[in-house]
Amino acid sequence: MTVLLPAVRPPTNETEKRLLDAALTLFAEKGYEAASVREIIEQVGVTRPVLYYYCASKEDLFKRLVHWTHDEAYRELSRIAQETTGCANRLRAIIRGSFAFCAADPRVPRVMFQTAFGPVIPGISEFLSELATQRFAIITQVIQDGLNSGELVSSDSRELALAFCCLMDQHLHILSRMPQPQEQLTPERADWLVTLFLTGVGTGTRAPNTSSPRGHL
Questions:
Q1: What CATH number does domain 14-199 carry, 1.10.340.30, 3.30.70.250, 1.20.140.10, 1.10.357.10?
Q2: Are 91 and 197 in contact (CB under 8 A)?
Q3: Interatomic CA distance for residues 67 and 72, integer angstroms
Q4: Looking at residue 3, what is its pLDDT?
Q5: 121 Cβ neighbours under 8 A, 6+ residues apart
Q6: Residue 55, C-beta contacts closer than 8 angstroms, at least 6 positions apart
Q7: What is the pTM of this model?
Q8: Fewer Cβ within 10 Å of end Cβ, the chain: N or C?
Q9: Are the CB atoms for 128 and 115 separated by under 8 Å?
Q10: Residue 49 and residue 86: Cα distance in Å, rounded?
């Protein structure tokens, strides 16, 4: 199973990196539609022709930004799914990796969630949906492997994958917006969420090695 984003040219020089970084900050703060090209170029101190040398349009800039920030993370997610053994271990590795990725630069999840859950934007909404489909396919396959091995019990891998993604993504969405998100998006909390997913919170079930996640909401 290999689900990867198409290879995209990385930034070639400092000016291009600064443009992408400025766009990331403004998109995270204001959203895609509210952030203007004028604000981006003013923050970097360049002209429109310089921006359009690197990107054909604002939409192209956003897509390059997403690829720039997500390509390696998606490749790592695919590698984890292929190389880690055991359904519980794979799920822990997926959430741990996602938490670490978002904690490294909280602007990234803020951009993604703000744009994905905002008004439909032609060209952008379809692009984000494609990325989400690729990610969901990886997680669904991990769940399906767990069903095939008997580690999970259910009849629908997609429903379980949706439940898992909701549990993970809602934490990413909320915790990345809190002060000091690095202190919230911890490996301990990631492991706790997997335990919660696998065992639930019913009084008739005792979760093995369960501990409270580190961090304070």
A1: 1.10.357.10
A2: yes
A3: 9
A4: 45
A5: 32, 33, 115
A6: 19, 61, 64
A7: 0.85
A8: C
A9: yes
A10: 52
Provide the pLDDT for residue 210.
47
Residue 74: which of 96, 92, 113, 101 has the closest Cα? 101
Amino acid at 48: R
* Buried/exposed 55-86: b ≥16 CB within 10 Å, e otherwise: beebeebbbbbbbbbbbebbebbbebbeebee
Q: Can you give the length of the chain in residues? A: 217
Q: 21-66 pLDDT, tens per residue?
A: 999 999 999 989 999 999 999 999 999 999 999 999 999 999 999 8
* pLDDT at residue 119 is higher than 90: no
Tokens encoding 164: 């898992």
Asked if residue 115 has pLDDT above 50, the reply is yes
Q: What is the DSSP string of 153-216?
A: --S-HHHHHHHHHHHHHHHHHHHTTSSSGGGTS-HHHHHHHHHHHHH-S-TT---TT--PPSS-
